[in-house]
Amino acid sequence: MLRCIITSAGLEFSPKSPDREGFWATISRMEKNPQEIIAELELARDRAQSALTAAVQERDMNRSLALQFETELLDERQRLASLLGSEFAPLIQTIRALSATVQNRLETVDASVAQMAAMISSNADELILQLRQVVGGLQVSQAEEQGLIPAARALLDDWRLRETNKRFELLLSPSEEDFGLGASEVEAAALRTIKESLERIGPHDGVRLVVVSLNVESGRLSVQISADRSVASICGQQTQFAALVEQLIRGLGGHCQVDTGESGGCEVVIRLPWGSLPV
Question: Nearest 5 degrees, angle CA 22-CA 23-CA 26?
Fold first, then answer.
């Protein structure tokens, strides 16, 4: 019947045509009940939708697992860096101090033992340097990705390794859980101020205590870096440090104050808007 219809319609068809099987398959489908065709299309659609849904769910699950893994890895790196800085560095410094004491006492008594003590002291210095490099490698991603507080903590951990006979403390108000996140420009400026301050305060011979205080109140961030001794490169009359800090926070709606602290030490204070920057 179909061949007659095709012939009467003036269509040419050769039984030897290479497309004849596909052609008659198409025609045979056209002979099905329209409802059957619709049912087949809906079934195909449902299968495609199910496959798409499964693919999206798998993608979301993989993303969630990747994020969880990255977070756990960063937390572990931070924990290890803090452990190395707070636990191992003081032990190494104690060994160094003891070896130096033995060396000084035995130089005129037993030169060979004094020389061994000097070697121990030298090895301790080398170990501290290597420890700093390890901690620095652990803290790279954490400092860049986790915000102001972990980055500030990483800087102080590094200085504890560099100056093991000095104390470096971090004070937070409110607690880290309630501190929140600021604009990226504000956090970057605050962190740079802390870093520049520590580079000048940390190596100072007279300094024994350095305190970095971070405070958020009424929508503003206050960063204070305090030392227990005056540091000429920051508080001196000829220093350009205040101008440097002003340049860092320029355009962020903040201001800087560099002064002598109540105990005669040195203080650097900056105040910046916390959260969205002013338009």
Answer: 85
Residue 50: is its pLDDT beyond 70? yes
Rg of the chain over Cα atoms, rounded to whole angstroms, equals 35
CB count in 10 Å sphere of residue 103: 18
Exposed/middle/buried for residue 182 (C-beta within 10 Å: 0-12, 13-18, 19+): buried
Q: Using CA atoms, how far apart are residues 175 and 35, in angstroms rounded to an integer?
A: 66
User: Which residues, at least 6 apart from 255, have a Cβ–Cβ distance to it below 8 Å?
Assistant: 246, 249, 270, 271
Provide the sign of the torsion angle of the four alpha carbons 50, 56, 58, 61, taken in this order: negative
Residue with tokens 């079934």: 43
Distance CA 123, CA 117 (A): 10
Q: How far apart are CA 275 and CA 136, in angstroms?
A: 29
Q: What is the pLDDT of residue 235?
A: 75
Whether the full predicted model's pTM is greater than 0.85, yes or no, is no
pLDDT digits (tens, 9 = 90+) for 77-124: 667 766 666 667 677 777 777 777 777 777 777 777 777 777 877 777
Cβ-count burial of 134 within 10 angstroms (0-12 exposed, 13-18 middle, 19+ buried)? middle
